[in-house]
Specification:
160 residues, alpha+beta, Aminopeptidase, seven-stranded mixed β-sheet, 7 strands, globular, Acyl_CoA_acyltransferase
């Protein structure tokens, strides 16, 4: 399968919301304290319409959104961005599309930030392995105020 990485547009909002909700259900994270209750979940084209903030989706040959990733400032921490809402449908995992999404996000982030931070869940072991493979180091405590208080694993990567 060939995937296109595209910047978020309004026509992708519904598709990426469905991807994220599907993944949150899959990993038992469909509850308070996670992206599940984020009021902007279906409005990424509006949310990521600012400098130093962007979101990309992976779209398959039929036009279906199969994954996405965002970058935005980490509230309360200067020089650090957050890797936001990186999810791929199970059918797209193992295809290399997650690496393409991550690389696009990191290239963008390096233009604006010194470090990138992310939060995930203990239950997402494959995601943790993926982040370590791409140079992220696990850190003991959360940084900033993402509002996702249910996340229990934290990573940081130097960009410069």
């Amino acid at each position: 399968m060939i995937y296109q990485i595209e910047e978020i547009k309004s026509e992708y909002n519904e598709g990426i919301e469905a991807v994220i909700r599907s993944c949150l259900v899959e990993f038992g994270a469909d509850h308070e304290g996670t992206a599940w209750t984020d009021p902007m979940l279906g409005r990424f084209s509006e949310l990521y319409d600012e400098e130093a903030s962007d979101y990309w989706v992976a779209v398959d040959e039929s036009g279906k959104v199969v994954g996405g990733v965002g970058v935005g400032p980490l509230p309360g921490v200067a020089g650090v961005c957050e890797l936001q809402k990186m999810y791929c449908l199970s059918t797209a995992r193992g295809t290399g599309v997650a690496g393409q999404l991550l690389n696009r996000a990191l290239e963008y982030a390096a233009d604006y930030y010194d470090q990138v931070y992310l939060e995930t869940f203990e239950s997402m072991l494959a995601a943790q392995k993926f982040y370590r493979k791409h140079g992220f180091k696990q850190i003991p405590d959360r940084m900033g105020d993402t509002g996702h208080y249910a996340c229990d694993v934290f990573f940081l990567k130097n960009l410069k």
